[in-house]
Amino acid sequence: MKNAPHIGLLEAGARGTIADVAGVSVGHCTLDAGDVQTGVTVVRPHDGDLYRSKVPAAACVINGFGKSIGLVQIEELGVLETPIALTNTFSVSTIAQAQIRSACESNGKIGRDWPSVNPLVLECNDGYLNDMQTFAVEEAHYRDALAACSKDFARGAVGAGRGMSCFELKGGIGTASRIARIEGRAYTTGALVLANCGRLPQLTIAGDAAGRGLHAAMQSNAGPEQGSIIMLVATDAPLDSRQLRRLAMRAAAGLARTGSVYGHGSGDIALAFSTAYAVPHDAALIAMPPLLSDAFIDPLFQSTADSIEQAVLDALFSAESVTGRDGHRRISLTDALEAQP
Question: Which one of 3.40.50.300, 3.40.718.10, 3.60.70.12, 2.130.10.10 gives the CATH number of domain 18-278+293-338?
């Protein structure tokens, strides 16, 4: 098995990535130098100014062992007003500062005549492969990742995913998409994960307990789960923030299928947003399309769970083997499978 199997019955979008959702783009900045194996990944819901043209969003904390910035305001107000940034645990404050600077450069009234801006930075701990105490990530790396945003982007051991581990193998950035059909209309759901969670004996690939055999063959000495995963869900379906939180909760279903049990030391966070409409910064009234009724939302729950499961597998199958801090090494899933008799 050299490629990830297709998960579920729904078809994928044209690219099979989160960028199948209209307006969404992704960029990376990767740091790969000896003990430094880390980076930044940025997801843009649209190409415009997110502070002036916000998008509805919601988050769900499945297990809260995390150090993110920005989730409190998203819970309260239900909108994104910066791109979503992913990085390592010790770089959250640096990237938040870069997001604030970027927003202020575009909108000089922020923090003066206008309210402050809510940066959004989500993280995982890449300390096994990356020496986080070097504080190698700088504000310029956020700008580079933002400038690199494109509909076509790399996956695996790139950007924020460079130093991440998943099921004791090489993890990183994974993505997928699914098409859900509701009352004759097609809606796209896209997922992107920063996969850094799980224990090898638990790894399940399309229902197959593949991790058990790999665990025995590799003589893995798995300890308690100490990883994390960030799961982003984008959709072009017209949903409000309450409904998007319901969508984010279904990311846990997809993650569970891969074998994760959301261990004590794992920060498992899902965030969902819609590109179906924008929320103007300074409008008294907001023009919204008719929202999808909750009674018809089940196909989106299915597309969310399937695309998250697919995205985790995509991270594993896309990653290359990496050697990092103090000679620590994470072998890729493809290399591990090829080594089996």
Answer: 3.60.70.12
How many residues appear in the chain? Answer: 341
Q: Are 86 and 196 in contact (CB under 8 A)?
A: no
pLDDT digit string (tens) for 272-329?
999 999 999 999 998 889 999 999 999 999 999 999 999 999 999 999 999 999 999 9
* Secondary structure (DSSP) of 58-72: EEEEEEE----BSHH
The predicted pLDDT at position 226 comes to 73
- Six-digit token string for 117: 């801006």
* CB contact at 8 A, 69 and 90: no
Beta strands 53-64; 267-274: pairing state: antiparallel
Active site residues: 228, 266, 268
Query: 223-232, pLDDT tens digit by residue?
Result: 677 789 999 9
Residue 246 to residue 72: CA distance in whole angstroms: 17
DSSP bridge pairs for 229: 195, 268
Residues of the chain above pLDDT 90, percent: 91
Tell me the longest C-alpha to C-alpha distance in the chain: 67
Task: Work out whether the CA dihedral 332, 334, 340, 341 comes out positive or negative.
Answer: negative
